[in-house]
Automatic annotation (TrEMBL):
Residues spanning the membrane: 6-22, 34-52, 72-93, 105-131, 184-204, 225-245, 265-285, 370-389
A GO term from the CC aspect: plasma membrane
Superkingdom classification of source: Bacteria
Protein name, per record: L-cystine uptake protein TcyP
Localization per Swiss-Prot or TrEMBL: Membrane
Similarity-based family: Belongs to the dicarboxylate/amino acid:cation symporter (DAACS) (TC 2.A.23) family.
Length: 463
């Protein structure tokens, strides 16, 4: 009977996928399909959990098959990350008419990412104060115990690594190893290498324009081929989202949500405030938040369901250039930098909250302005090199707590609600990288308001 139920669940899921296939053939707008996929995934996942329960054999095995669509989609996007970073950043240099905007672009993108991360850390700390979580204790179960043991082994690998040593680790020693993502800092290492290649191109362009022109054409060809692959993969977005959302709702531990409800609520309040801060910054950049939100909904929906900032990179860059009017150079810089530097959710709010919660247990005065500034500074510096994939927040938290000589056990104690919080964290991460693109493009006078304000200029035009 169990196999029959599993077959029934999978049959319904296949019928859902076929429905989205028919919608695609009928040219239903991409944003509408993404929104519908989100809703269908929520309903289908909830039904599975209510009917069969979260840890039942039916749910476990059915989700294992459904994961082929969800995790398979994320894997395809992650496949593109390293080549996309390389061709995007190098291509950004080849598209520069001159070098006068290069400094402004890089400085403004980095400043936006880091300043908002520092502000996000402060917001996270204030949320802990608001909900009176400082010194709070959380229940430790079997899963939490196992996670703490795992964290202890991971902490041993980085406990003797100072912040200067962490910065040195960003420099690639074997670019081929980093292109295959063998290190936690491989993403930023590829960013560094790509930047050096771009700068070298500018030098060659001055002395040997003919060779530089050949290289620029080669990079442009690679960029177009890569973006074509991106388009092919992005067409699978509704299928991936419905599968990912089904898994989240079918396997979420709602009892843990009740037990750690205060922490989850405090996290979401902090992340919502950070998101609102982004909207205020958009106003200063003379961008209508309502128009902006309408255009970025597909990429934020994917970020929410996939929990992968890096996986959202292709859709991120497409959204910036085709829907928001950001120039290609800035979009490529902002998108690539944003997945490894200054992630507001994973590297800003989250580690700052954990530090503020656990500090009083070791006798630290968390209300001291100097200690608050110390947490903000450590969080901002540590935000460099945080991988934009699942586990990035854990890595950032270990670095921050270790640098402040605070116990890391709290990271393991909140494992049961980690996926629920991580969805919102990832959404904020991706939104901040697009914000950096808009702010920078506006500053250098390259933001195309006609594209930004054109309701027909959306990512779905090619999907």
């Amino acid at each position: 009977m169990t196999n029959l139920y599993i077959l029934l669940v999978l049959t319904v899921f296949l019928a859902i996928l076929f429905m989205f296939y028919r919608m695609q053939k009928k040219h239903v707008a991409f944003s509408k399909r993404v929104f519908l996929a989100l809703g269908v995934g929520v309903i289908f996942g909830t039904v599975i959990q209510l009917v069969f329960e979260r840890e039942s054999v039916v749910t476990t095995k059915a989700i294992d098959w459904i994961n082929i669509a969800g995790n398979g989609y994320v894997s395809l996007l992650q496949m593109l990350i390293m080549p996309l970073i390389f061709v995007s950043i190098v291509g950004a240099f080849t598209k520069l008419e001159g070098t006068k905007n290069l400094g402004k672009i890089s400085v403004t993108v980095l400043a936006t990412l880091l300043i908002t991360t520092a502000a996000s850390a402060l917001i996270g700390i204030l949320s802990v104060f608001l909900f009176k979580l400082q010194g709070a204790e959380f229940t430790k179960g079997a899963a939490e115990t196992a996670r703490i043991a795992d964290l202890a082994s991971r902490q041993e690998l980085i406990q003797d690594v100072t912040i200067p040593q962490q910065i040195v680790s960003f420099i690639p020693t074997n670019i081929f190893a980093d292109l295959s993502g063998t290190r936690a800092t491989s993403t930023i290492a590829v960013v560094v290498f790509s930047t050096f290649v771009g700068m070298a191109y500018l030098g060659v362009k001055r002395k040997s324009p003919q060779e530089a022109e050949f290289f620029a054409k080669l990079i442009e060809s690679l960029y177009k081929i890569t973006m074509r692959i991106v388009t092919l993969v992005l067409r699978l977005t509704p299928y991936g989202i419905v599968a990912l959302m089904t898994k989240v709702l079918a396997t979420s531990n709602f009892q843990a949500l009740v037990n750690l409800g205060k922490f989850v609520l405090a996290s979401y309040v902090a992340l919502i405030v950070v998101f609102l801060m982004h909207m205020v910054i958009l106003l200063f950049a003379k961008v209508n938040p309502a128009i902006y939100l309408q255009k970025v909904f597909p990429v934020l929906s994917f970020a929410f369901t996939s929990r992968s900032s890096a996986g959202a990179l292709p859709l991120n860059i497409e959204t910036q250039t085709k829907a928001l009017g950001v120039d290609e150079t800035t979009a490529n810089f902002a998108g690539s930098f944003g997945i490894s530097i200054g992630q507001n959710g994973c590297a800003g709010v989250y580690p700052a909250m954990l530090a503020a919660i656990v500090a009083p247990t070791v006798g630290m005065d968390i209300f001291s302005p100097m200690y608050i500034l110390t947490i903000m500074a450590v969080v901002t510096i540590s935000s460099f090199g945080v991988a934009g994939v699942g586990g990035g927040a854990t890595f950032a938290s270990l670095i921050v707590l270790g640098s402040l000589d605070l116990p890391v056990e709290i990271v393991g104690l909140v494992i049961s609600v980690e996926p629920l919080i991580d969805m919102a964290r990832t959404t904020v991460n991706v939104n901040d990288s697009m914000l950096a693109g808009i702010v920078t493009s506006r500053r250098i006078g390259e933001l195309d308001d006609r594209v930004l304000n054109d309701p027909k200029a959306v990512v779905s035009s090619s999907l």
